[in-house]
Amino acid sequence: MQTHQALRVEIMIESPMARRLTDAIEAAGVTGYTVLPVQGGSGRSGTWSREGQITGGMLAVVCIIQPDRKDALLEAAFSVVERHIGVIAISACEVLRAERF
Amino acid sequence: MQTHQALRVEIMIESPMARRLTDAIEAAGVTGYTVLPVQGGSGRSGTWSREGQITGGMLAVVCIIQPDRKDALLEAAFSVVERHIGVIAISACEVLRAERF
Amino acid sequence: MQTHQALRVEIMIESPMARRLTDAIEAAGVTGYTVLPVQGGSGRSGTWSREGQITGGMLAVVCIIQPDRKDALLEAAFSVVERHIGVIAISACEVLRAERF
Amino acid sequence: MDLAIANLTSPMVLFFVLGLVASLARSSLSVPEAAAKALALYLMFAIGYKGGVSVAEHGLDASLISALLAGVLLSAVIPFIAFGLLRAVSGLSAIDAAAVAAHYGSISIVTFVAASSVLESSGIAYEGYLVAVAAAMETPAILTALFLVARQGGPGKAAAGPGGAGRMDAETWREIFLNGSIVLLIGAFVIGWVTGPSGMAEISAFIDAPFKGVLCLFLLDMGLVAGRGMAASGRQLSLPVILFGLAMPLISAALALALAALLGLSLGGAVLLLTLSASASYIAVPAAMRVALPEAQPSIYLTLSLGVTFPFNLAIGIPIYVWAAGLIAG
Amino acid sequence: MDLAIANLTSPMVLFFVLGLVASLARSSLSVPEAAAKALALYLMFAIGYKGGVSVAEHGLDASLISALLAGVLLSAVIPFIAFGLLRAVSGLSAIDAAAVAAHYGSISIVTFVAASSVLESSGIAYEGYLVAVAAAMETPAILTALFLVARQGGPGKAAAGPGGAGRMDAETWREIFLNGSIVLLIGAFVIGWVTGPSGMAEISAFIDAPFKGVLCLFLLDMGLVAGRGMAASGRQLSLPVILFGLAMPLISAALALALAALLGLSLGGAVLLLTLSASASYIAVPAAMRVALPEAQPSIYLTLSLGVTFPFNLAIGIPIYVWAAGLIAG
Amino acid sequence: MDLAIANLTSPMVLFFVLGLVASLARSSLSVPEAAAKALALYLMFAIGYKGGVSVAEHGLDASLISALLAGVLLSAVIPFIAFGLLRAVSGLSAIDAAAVAAHYGSISIVTFVAASSVLESSGIAYEGYLVAVAAAMETPAILTALFLVARQGGPGKAAAGPGGAGRMDAETWREIFLNGSIVLLIGAFVIGWVTGPSGMAEISAFIDAPFKGVLCLFLLDMGLVAGRGMAASGRQLSLPVILFGLAMPLISAALALALAALLGLSLGGAVLLLTLSASASYIAVPAAMRVALPEAQPSIYLTLSLGVTFPFNLAIGIPIYVWAAGLIAG
Ligand SMILES: Nc1ncnc2c1ncn2[C@@H]1O[C@H](COP(=O)(O)O)[C@@H](O)[C@H]1O
Ligand SMILES: Nc1ncnc2c1ncn2[C@@H]1O[C@H](COP(=O)(O)O)[C@@H](O)[C@H]1O
Ligand SMILES: Nc1ncnc2c1ncn2[C@@H]1O[C@H](COP(=O)(O)O)[C@@H](O)[C@H]1O
Ligand code: NA
Ligand code: NA
Ligand code: NA
I need a labelling partner for F280 at 20 to 30 A (CA). Which of B9, E157, F64, F255 fits? Predict the structure, then answer.
C-alpha cells in the first residue's frame, strides 16, 4: 500500500504536566496524539512505580506528525518538559493517509 | 549482538473494533502482537479521556513483523480501521531472533 | 531544534521477570527506562488478555539509550528474556538532550 | 409534587449534580475507570439478584411473558418514532438520526436502578421480573435502527459493500445479545430465582444494605462523565436535538403507560416500565453503533443520551412516571 | 447428599457457573483487573483477620504447631505423588509434570474461603489458626517440584548453567516466601489475634457482613477467567491429564484425612485441612514457575488448576470433604 | 496513656504497620492503584457526608466562620515557621524548604479521618463543620510557600521568567482550588447538610458501617506506599530533616491548641483542629509543587510527609492531641 513519510514523537512526562503538554501541542497546531498510561520507570530522579502510588506518576504521549511540523511540535513540547521530569524521542515512521496528520 | 531488520507497526484503534483487528491480523498470518491500553487522545473526532469513560476508549496494537509481511498486514489492518477511528504507523526496527516473527 | 542520534529499545516481557529485567538493565549502566502496562497479546505461546487475568500478564519496557550502549543493553536484556516469553525490538530515534541518556 | 421535590433533594440526584458541576468546573475529581466499572457490575449484580429473589418469593405472575413481549415491542417501535421526529425537526443525517433512535428504544439500566430505589424509599412494590424485561429491551432497538438505515438506501449501499458486509455479521450479533450487562442481569436474576430468600439472607448484607450508597457514588461518576461530555461536545447539539432529548422520554413513557394499563402491571411495575421506555442507552448501544454504524457521530448520541436525557429522567422524569403510573394503577 | 445439592445450588457456585458460561459463550462480561485484585485482597484480609480473632477468643489450641507441621508435610509430600501419577498416566514431560505437581501441593486460598463459608452456613466451627496453616502450605510444594526437576537431570543441567544459576537465587526465594497473599494472610491473622473481639466489633461490618456477597462476585470473575482459560487452552489438556485434575484432589484429601485424625482436629478444622490439601494453587505457584521453571507450559498447569480442579472442589469436592471429615471428627 | 496504647494496638495502626513492614521487606503485596483511589474517594465521600449530616442535626454553631478563619490562618502561618526552622537546622535549599513548608501548612485528610475514627471509638463528639475547615486548610499553605520562594529572589527570578510566568497562571490556581479532594469533601458536606438525617438513614449502611474496615484497608496501602518511599529515598533525608518531621507536628498542634481555646471548640473539635494542623499533605500539595516548583525534590517532601510525619501522627500524635485538647476543652 502507498505510505507517506511521517514522524513519531514520544514524550514521557509527569502527569501533573500532561494537560499543559497537550494544550501546548494543540496550540502548535498538532491535533492528533494518543496518551498511554505508564506503570513505572527510572531516570535521574530515581525509580518509581505506579502501584500504590498516591500522586501522579507519568504518562506517555505519542504524536504522529508530518515532518514539517517537527520544529513547531518540539519547541512547544520542550517549553513544557524543559524544567520538568520527562523525555522526548523522535523517530521516522510511515503512515497510510497523510492528509490526516 | 546479531540483529535482523524488521518492521514495527503500531495501530491505534477504538476498542469495540480491537477484536476484529487482531482477528484480521491473525488471518493475515501475523501471530505476534501486543495490545497496550490507551488513556486518552485527540484526533479529528475530538478529545477524549479514559478516566470515567463509560464506553470503550481506544487501544494500541503493536506488531513486530518481518519486512515481507508488511503489505499483507497493512491490507488486513486497513480493511478494519478504514471506516473507523484509528491511526496506523510503521517504523523500521531490528530484532534479535528473526525466526520468531 | 538540535537533536542527537539515539536508540529506542522496546522489550515486551512477562511481569514476573520484569524486576529482573530492570535490574539487569541498570547493572548494564542504563538508568533510564519507562515501563508501560500491557493489556493483552499473542505470540508463540498463545493469546492472552489482562482482563480478569489472575496472574501476571506482560509489561513493555522502553529504554532510550545512546547508540554506544546498545550492545551492553541487549546482552543484559537478552540474558533475562532468553528463556522467557518476550520480544526485543530496537529502532533509531533522535533525542533533545543527549547528555541525559 | 412532593415526590418531585423529595427526588430533587435526594442524595442520589445531588451526587449526580455534584459530579456534573465538578466536571463543568474542570475539577480534577475523577473515579478510576476500573472502580466505575466495578460499581456498575455491583449494581447489575444486585438489581438482577433482587429481582430473581422477588420472583421466587411472589411466584411468577402469569404476565411475565406478556411483559417481556411488551418490552420488546416498545424497544422495537420507539426508534421509528424517534427517527421520524428527528428527521422532521432536527437537521441530523439519516445515519445519525437512526443511531440516536437506537439509543432511545434501548434502555439505561442505571435509570432503572434509580427508579427502583425511589420506589423502595416510597415503599412501593414492583414485579421482580421487570429486571428480565429490562434485559429484553436492550437490543431490539438496534435492529430497528439498522433497518431504518438500510431502508434509507444511502448507507444501505455501503452496508451491502465489502466493508458493510462485515459489519452485521454473526459475530456482531453475538456481541450485542451477549453483552456483559444482559448476561449479568439475566444471570443474577436466574440465580436469585433459584436461590430465593435463603440465598438472599446470606448475601443481603452485600447487595441490599449498601445499595443506595453505592448508587450515589456511581451517580457522582455519571455526573462527572456527563459533564465532561457536555463540555467536550455540548456545542455540537442543536436546540431541536436537545429538545428531542427532553420530549422523547415523555413520548416513550406515554406509549409504555398504555401498555402497562393493558398488562395490568402494579403501580411499581408500571413506573419501571415507563422508566425503561423513557430511558436511553449509553453503554450497550454506543458500543454496537461503533461497530455497525461507524459513520454515526458518538459526540451526538452519547452527549444527548448521557448529558440530556439521563439527567432529565433522574431529576424530573422519574417523579412524573410515578405520578402517571398512579393514573392507571394502584 | 443434602449438603451436596445445597452446595450446587448455593449463590457461590451458581455465580461461578455464570462466569464460566458467560466466558465460554464469549460474552463481553468482565471484571476489571484492578477490581478483581481488590476483591482478592478483601477476601484474604477478612479471612486472615477472622482467623486471628477466633484464636484470640478460643485461645491457642496446643495443636497449632502440629497442624502447621502437618500442613507443611502435606504440601511437601503431595507433589511426589502427583508427579509420579502424572509421569505414569500422562505424556507430560518431567518439567511440566513437576510444575503441575507444585500446584497441587500448594493451596488455593479461594477454595479455602469457599469451604469456610460453607462451614459457616452450616454452623460448623473451625480452628481459627487454619489460616496460618493455609499460609504455611503455599510454598513447600515449590521446593519439592524443583527437587524433582533437579533429580531428573535433564533440566537440572540447565538449572546448573548460567541461565539456570540465576533462577533460584535468594531473590526468588524472597519473592516466594514474601508473596503478597502469604504476607496479607499472616499479617491480618496476627492483627486479628492482637486486636481480638474488640477489634472485630469495630470492623465486622466491613469484613464479616458483606463477606459472602463479595465472595460471589469474586467467584463470578473466577468463572470468567476459568472459562477463558478453558476456551484458549482446553484442547491442550489430554484426557489422562484432566482425569488427574479430578482424582488428585481426592488422593490429597485422603492423605489429609489421616493427618486430621491424628491431629484430632474438630470437624470444621478437618474439612479445611482436607480442602487445603485438595486445592491447587493458581496465583502464587504459577508466578514462581514462570521464574523458576520457564520451560513448563502455563497453558497446562493454569488450565488444569483453574479450569478443572477449582470447579471440581467448589462444586463437588467440598461436600465430599465435609462428609469425609464427619467420619473421623465431630 | 491508655489511649496511646489502645491506639498503638488498634487495627488501623497495625494495618499501617503491616503495609510498612511488607514493603520494607519487599513483599509483592500491593493494592492496585485504581482500588486505592476508590478507597480514598470513599473515605472523603463518607467523612464529608457525615460532617454535613451532623451540621444538619446540631444546627450550625456560630463558630463555623471563625473556625474556617482559624483554619485558613493556621494553614497560611505554619509554613513560615516550618520554613524558618528548616533553613535554620537543615541544609535544604530555599526551594526545597518552601516546598516542605507548604506540605506542613496544608493537611492530610486520612490523618483527619483516622483521628475522627479514634474519637468515635472513644465516644467523643465533634463539630461536623470541621470537614469544611479541613477543606479550607488545603490550599493557603501553597500560597505562603510561593511567597517565600519569590521573596528569596533566587528562584523568584525564574518565576518571573518565561518558564516561570507560566507556572502560577490562572489554570494552576483553578487546579489547586478545585482539586478533587476539596470538591468531593465540600460537595459531600453540602449534600449531607441538605439531606440530613433522613438521607443518612438511606445510605448509612454504605458510609457508616463499613467505614473503619475500609480505613484499615486504606491504611494498609498507605503503609505499603510509605515503605516504598522510605526504601527508595529514605537515605536522602538527613537527620535534622527527619527530626523536623517529628517536631513540626507538635509545634503546629500547639499553635492550633491556642486557637481552639480561643474558638471554644468542643473536645472532639479541638482534637481535630490540632490533628489538621499537625498533619502534612501528601496528595494535593505534591501535585501543586510539581507544577509550581518543579525544582523542589519530591523525594524529600513526599518521603518526609508520608514516611515520617504521617506514621508519627497516626501512632503517637493523635493520642497526644486528644490529651492536649483535654487540657483546654471538655
Ligand atoms: N532513557 C530513558 N528511556 C526511557 N524512559 C526514560 C529515560 N529516562 C527517563 N525516562 C522516563 O522519564 C522519567 C523521569 O526521568 P528523569 O527526569 O530522568 O528522572 C523516568 O521515571 C522514566 O519513566
Ligand atoms: N496524529 C496522531 N498521533 C497519534 N495518535 C493519533 C493521531 N491522530 C489520531 N490519533 C489517535 O486516534 C484517535 C482517533 O483519531 P481520529 O480518528 O483522528 O479521531 C485519537 O483519539 C488518538 O488517540
Ligand atoms: N511479533 C510480535 N509483535 C509484538 N508483540 C509480540 C510479538 N510476538 C510476541 N509478542 C508479545 O510477546 C508475548 C509473548 O510472546 P511469545 O513468547 O511469542 O508467546 C505475546 O503475548 C505478545 O504480547
Ligand atoms: Na428507552
Ligand atoms: Na493442595
Ligand atoms: Na498541617
Answer: F64
Q: What is the dihedral of CA B70, B72, B75, B80, to 10 degrees?
A: -110
Structure confidence by residue, pLDDT tens digits, F63-103? 889 999 999 999 999 999 999 999 999 999 999 999 999 99
* pTM across the whole model: 0.94
DSSP-assigned beta bridge partners for residue F51: none
C-alpha E106, offset from chain centre: 6
User: Which residue among B5, B8, B10, B33 has the greatest number of ligand 3 atoms within 8 angstroms of its CB, and so is best to mutate?
Assistant: B33
Residues in contact with F85: Cβ distance below 8 Å, sequence separation at least 6, in sequence order: F244, F247, F248, F251
CB-based contacts of D209, cutoff 8 Å, min separation 6? E209, F205, F206, F209
Q: Nearest-CA neighbor of D281 among D80, D141, D72? A: D141
Query: Given this model, what pLDDT does residue C55 score?
Result: 55
Look at residue D179 and give its three-state secondary structure: coil
Euclidean distance between CA atoms D309 and D317, whole angstroms: 9
Q: What are A41-64's pLDDT values in tens digits?
A: 888 877 776 654 555 688 999 999
Contact E126, E272 (CB under 8 A): yes
Q: Is A36 helix (H, G, I), strand (E, B) or coil?
A: strand
Query: For chain B, what is the radius of gyration of the CA atoms?
Result: 14
Distance between CA atoms of B90 and B93, rounded to whole angstroms? 10
Determine contact: B14 vs chain D, CB below 8 A. Answer: yes
The end-to-end CA distance of chain A, in Å, is 18
For residue range F121-172, list pLDDT tens digits in order.
999 999 999 999 999 999 999 999 999 999 876 544 444 333 443 356 788 8
d(CA E59, CA E53): 10
Asked if residues B94 and C73 have their Cβ atoms less than 8 Å apart, the reply is no
Q: Does D251 touch chain F (CB under 8 A)?
A: no
The grid coordinates listed for B41 are 487522545
Cα–Cα nearest to F178, from D25, D328, E246, E165: D25
Pick from D110, D118, D108: nearest CA to D9: D118
- DSSP for E268-288 reads HHHHHHHHHHH---SSHHHHH
Give how far the C-alpha of residue E184 lies from the chain's centroid of Cα atoms, to the nearest Å.
15
Kindly give, in sequence order, each residue whose CB lies less than 8 Å from that of residue B65, ignoring residues fewer than 6 positions away: B6, B7, B9, B30, B32, B73, B101
DSSP β-bridge partners for residue B41: A34, B48
Q: Is the pLDDT of residue D276 over 50?
A: yes
Q: Nearest to residue E12, comparing CAs of E301, E322, E327, E314?
A: E314
Interface of F with D in 5-34 (CB under 8 A): 32-34
Q: What are the chain C neighbours of E294 within 8 Å (beta carbons)? A: 83-85
Q: Taking the alpha carbons of F100, F102, F105, F111 in that order, is the dihedral positive or negative?
A: negative
E329 φψ region: left (φ > 0), alpha (ψ -120 to 50), beta (else): beta
Distance C54 CA to ligand 5 centre (A): 18
> pLDDT tens across C43-58, in order?
887 777 665 455 568 8
Amino acid making up residue D218: F
Does the beta carbon of C27 sit less than 6 angstroms from any atom of ligand 3?
Answer: no
CA distance E41 to F265: 40
Residues 6+ apart with CB under 8 A from B23: none
Please give the sequence-ordered ranges of beta strands (E in DSSP) within B19-85, or none if there are none.
33-37, 40-43, 46-49, 58-65
Return d(Cα B78, Cα E104) in angstroms, integer.
47
* CA-B64 nearest atom, ligand 3: 3
Torsion angle, alpha carbons of E212, E217, E221, E222, to 10: 10
C-alpha cell at E210: 458483606
Handedness of CA E65, E71, E74, E77 (dihedral sign): negative
What is the end-to-end Cα distance of chain D in Å, rounded?
Answer: 18
